[in-house]
Amino acid sequence: RVFLSLSVLSLQFNSDSAARHSLYVKEHKVRAEKSSHRPLDRTLFVLNIPPYCSEDVVKELFSQFGNVESVELRDHPGSTQESGPKLSKFFRPAGKQGFNVGYVVFKKSSSLTAVKSHPHDVPLVVCTEQRPVRTGVQKWIQQYTQSFIHPDKLQQTVDSFMENYDKHKEEEAERQKKEAEQQKEEEEGWVKVTRGNKGTKARPHSEAANQRTLQKEMRKKKRKELMNFYTWQHRNTQKEHIAELRKKFEEDKQRIALLRAQRKFRPY
Amino acid sequence: MKKKQAATEEPAEVNLDTSEENEAPVKAKRIKPDAGEEEEVVYHPVKLSRNDLYRPPTAEELNQLKEAESLFHCSLLKMQMGELLKEVALSERRKQQIDSFIQTVTKLFQTVPDSPEVEVSDLSWLSGTVKVPFLLLPKITKGKFHMAPPASIDLIGSYPLGTCTKPHVMVDLAVTIPAVSHLSIFFQTQYPRKRALYLAGLAQYLTSSSDIGTMRYSCLHGNRLRPVLLLTPPDKNSSSFTVRVHACPPPGFFKPSRFHPQRNNIRTEWYTGLQTSHSESSEPPTPHYNSSVLGDLLPRAHLQFLSAISSQCSAFADGVALLKVWLRQRELNQGTGCFNGFLASMLMAYLLTTHRISNTMTAYQLLRNSLNFLASTDLTVNGISLARDADSTAPTLAEFHSAFQVVFVDPSGHLNMCADMTACTYMQLQHEASVSMQFWDNPTVDGFHSLLMTPKPMIRTSDHVFQLCELVKLQSSCKKLNLLSELMDHSGNYIHTALPFILSLLQQGLDQRIQLLTHSLSPDPEWSVESEAPKYKAQPPLSFGLLFRPELAASVLERGPPADSPKAAEFRQLWGLRSELRRFQDGAITEAVLWDGESMCQKRLVPKQIITHLLQLHADIPESCVRYVGAMVDDVIKSETKDTGEEKSLAVVQSYDDLSRKLWRLEGLPLSITAVQGAHPALRYTQVFPPKPLKMDYSFFDKEKTCRSLVPKEGKPCPAYITPITVICHMEGSGKWPNDRLAIRHIRAAFHIQLGELLRKHHKYTCRPCPTHLDVWKDGLVFRIQVAYHREPQVLRESVNPEGLLVVRDNEEAQALEMATIHKPLLTSTLHGLQQQHPCFGAVCRLAKRWLGAQLFTPLLRFNHVFPFVEGVFPTDFSADYTEIKNGFMASRESLPVMFIATPKDKKLSMWTRRAPNVQMLQRVMMVAAESLKVLEQQLMDGNQIQDVKVVMRPPLEVYDAVIHLNPKQVPLLSQAVDPPSVTFSRGVMTGSAAQSGGSLPVIDYNPVSLYLAELREAFGDLALFFCDPYGGTVIAVLWKPKAFSPVPFKTSQVSARSVKVTGDEANTVPNVEAILEDFQIMGKGLVKSVEARTEKWSF
């Protein structure tokens, strides 16, 4: 069965399960795919992977169609954005346990056609005797056991990260310094005279500071204004006051009407 | 909003409530049906044209605006008052109905035929089924009687005065007995009897008329000597008003001075039927009897007086109506000894005549001033009198005070209008008035609503309530208290005779423990004209309400005077055998009574012990007659050890204090600790089941050697749940902290390791550091220490945009962190302080949370933080929780979260409720709360029902689409369930005292049920809602979201757990329910017993 260029595979948990989930697969096709680890001709895009299928399980499931190079599970389709330094597993945020989409990269592109031609009524089986999948209480106990981290190992991770971080920082500082020097030299013999390091304060580099200066200006302007000085000004203020009272009165009247409609005034 | 609601056809929907008022509980059912009608009125912003706003004001308009601005907080209050008055005032149509009915009745009365003269004892002329509303005993009377048309028929009371209010419109009609009816002045014998006969005669005449609906007898103020006849119109709206016919003696029929409160008008000899040696002069005075007779004579004079007053003051009628509404909400306006509408008008008249209020004041000011007067004046000590120039025969105020508890003398100077009122009722009135004044002056409370709209029945305002069930027993207490002459004065009503004495006895016994003792007012009996008057004992049981002083109420020791002081005898007399001589630590030897009670929950019942003991000892009322309502719901928060956990919370707090001290003293950290704060419900006394120190049975677990931790074993029941108690540990700010979010997290982890190391070295605690926290095993409890850096939220918010400008953007992550490390600890310490002020706060919170949990609401409402603002307005013990829940749902405005809770630190955003409850959920909670309140109150007040307060804790499962039954073996909190099962499982806990610190770490925070729920919600959160009682629930209820079940076109982002149906060109998806139900099984393998699908809902 094929629709919208997707083919449907069915999947069941183990061989006695009665109900089946449907996996929707097609080849990965994106106009501008930048990352190299999803080669367009060899990547299979899989929708609706149940929560109990981890990356390893998916790899096992699809290896019947050919050798699988890598599997990537995500909670919604989209390109990868990798940022920041590589984190150790202790510090990585926990993944979501819901239904996932997957990108399965095969070694050969011929595997894709094998998948697509797989008959709909022969289900993939997640949990077999050869490779049992833990769920429920078993899984939670396993999770609990794996949550232990030996302090020494943790300390090591922290130390190495901080070392990297410090190095990175230093490099950054070095780079900036060099840039500044370069700029100086570029200006053909002219040397710009600044107030040294303090000079950076002259122009604020944050949004908050910008706003502060703006507000200061406003306040200055306001202070100069005279309120209630001329008679017409005074009269206007009074007028405004009455208008305000009237408006409030109208609002209250409406609110009362609403409450009355809801019979909120029956005391008993 | 309306549209959205129509689309989601939640079964448990009520209409949306867009206003900011909270719903009074009793009205929950009323708002349901008229949803359609409401559709028309929608609140939209007012648009006034420039012309409207700026046109020149008229003088009248200016005045009006000024008044609204200065008198009321805003014009809203003024309008609310106006609307309320409109609701209670009689409509013109109703008035016409009343007038025409009165006319027909008057005409009928005037045509009463004269009957031949008969002996009084001869009742043969009274043919038919009409009975005489009077006990015709003793039989010896002689005299003549015959019927004749009344001498005059007048309207009296509130109707002609214009102060009559809905509901229960009562129109009083005075019928003057003609002089020819041989009314004689032998009062005790003839007058009441003949009057009763006259009423019976009228009733008999009216039975033949078709213009009269039902006829019933009643009696004024429960006094059997003052029968009245109640008439209703015959048509279908007969319940709309009642005409009360009083038979009155002709004016000037007797001299008022004869009924001086110190004179006797009933001969003991006649009353008892025995010859006694009393001489004329030594007969006991009969003040109550006297005032009841005087009351018959004066109504017309009172009406004249009041109408004169009301014609001077334009707002008089409105003011009285408001005061009547106020009284009615407090259940003070009906029954014997009440503060009825007549007294309200008289009070208003008194204030006007003494110029406490001026004639030009508005109704609102009248109400406010009269409440102020009530709050500040004690009529039990300083009575007031309306008599301007009383004649010399009138008694003095002192004479009134010696005869009555509360004194308010009428314009004639002879009658005390508060004769039947007990001092306790007046105290209650005074208390309510002063509380109301406080409410009014408090700008944060909606005064109008809490004063005039919210009913305050006794069960909701008192801490404890008890009832006297078998009122016959009061007869014997009259005997025991030796009250024969008083009994005579009350003409045999033993309940009213004994009541003041019982009240003073209790007041004496409870003394410092209570702020206020209140009692229910017995309602006026009503019976049909064809039956005999009901017995005194037939009235509903008497209820007494106690309002405690929290600091003294639960003390187990009653310390009396020193043994040699003269007061000792009095003390011994009061307490009987319970009084013992005791030697105290300060060396004094005094009389004392020691009550039983070890834990807090037993101590709370000390007042019960006192009450039953005193009643048994002095009033001969056995314990079986006392139905004590108080601390009944405590059962559900009792743990296995049968206490309510206050002590355990305290133990946790002490252990935490110790840990925090030790943390402060740690040396060798690179940065110092600036603050240690608790952030766990147990540390603010609101954990439903406070954690208790445990000792682990190592053989029950697997062991993880490297980390010295225990691990749950497969195949065994789930180990006992150990909740980690969160402690936030703030570190000093320093330039050494990095300015990068990841680096901060790593540094934090390093701190956790180091803290753990130091704690292990110096104090031998077993610790386990993680990147996010450090678990410490101490005194059988687990503390979870989280290091916090005060700038971290700021760092999370900062980012550099492409132009190199530093931008600060608020984000979820930063908010969550701020909440956890700053707001939560702050609130915890605030609530901790609150608990010190209001000791029942913790218990109330825990009950409320238990209830929410049991009704399967917990995932949606995080109630931990709701309570500081609804705190002890009513510091009640057992039902306050429901009242407070409702107070919690105050404001729901369009732009803000549905449930808005302001904290001292957070006034605009309501950060605790931004995400949690949505409109539907809140509605459902309110509805269920209202229903539960109803059930609970009924059960608490009705003696006949079997008391099972747990009913309100059992949720109905019918409304849910699927139910997942869990295996009790794997539910670690099973013993906390509302109905704990009889089977228990070994959970690896050893009995005996808690483990010393050290040893392996137990299994921490491992609860399969919550893990399962989290997985379910992550996987199926957009298809269904999952509900589970977190306190030992063995059932997970599933509700499909109707929206998710309508077919949607295929989208790659929306295919989770859905199957595709291709019809023609379209490919739609619907949830694959069979597979989902099976997934429930698979994901909860070992935990799930069975999955039960209840509806076929997926076939939409």
Automatic annotation (TrEMBL), chain A:
- Alphabetically ordered keywords of this record: Coiled coil, RNA-binding
Could you tell me which InterPro entries the record lists for this protein?
A: Nucleotide-bd_a/b_plait_sf, RBD_domain_sf, RRM_dom, RRP7, RRP7_C, Rrp7A_RRM
Chain coiled-coil ranges: 235-262
Q: What name does UniProt use for this protein?
A: Ribosomal RNA processing 7 homolog A
The text of the family note is: Belongs to the RRP7 family.
Q: Which Gene3D superfamilies match?
A: 3.30.70.330, 6.10.250.1770
Record-linked SUPFAM superfamilies: RNA-binding domain, RBD
Q: Where is the composition biased (Basic and acidic residues)?
A: 166-183
- Please tell me whether the keyword RNA-binding is annotated for this protein: yes
Could you tell me the Gene Ontology terms of the biological process aspect for this record? ribosomal small subunit assembly; rRNA processing
Q: Which organism is it from?
A: Amphiprion percula
Quote the cellular component terms of the Gene Ontology held in the record: CURI complex; UTP-C complex
Stretches assigned to the RRM domain:
42-140
Q: Where is the stretch described as Disordered?
A: 166-189
Pfam families, sorted: RRM_1, RRP7
One GO molecular function term of this record is: RNA binding
UniProtKB/TrEMBL annotation, chain B:
Top-level taxon: Eukaryota
In terms of InterPro entries, this protein maps to:
NOL6/Upt22, Nrap_D1, Nrap_D2, Nrap_D3, Nrap_D4, Nrap_D5, Nrap_D6
Q: Name one Pfam family in it.
A: Nrap_D6
Region described as Disordered? 1-33
Predominant place of localization: nucleus
GO term, biological process aspect, one: tRNA export from nucleus
Q: Does the keyword Amino-acid biosynthesis apply?
A: no
The job of this chain, per UniProt, is described as: Part of the small subunit (SSU) processome, first precursor of the small eukaryotic ribosomal subunit. During the assembly of the SSU processome in the nucleolus, many ribosome biogenesis factors, an RNA chaperone and ribosomal proteins associate with the nascent pre-rRNA and work in concert to generate RNA folding, modifications, rearrangements and cleavage as well as targeted degradation of pre-ribosomal RNA by the RNA exosome.
Recorded protein name is Nucleolar protein 6
Organism the protein comes from: Amphiprion percula (Orange clownfish)
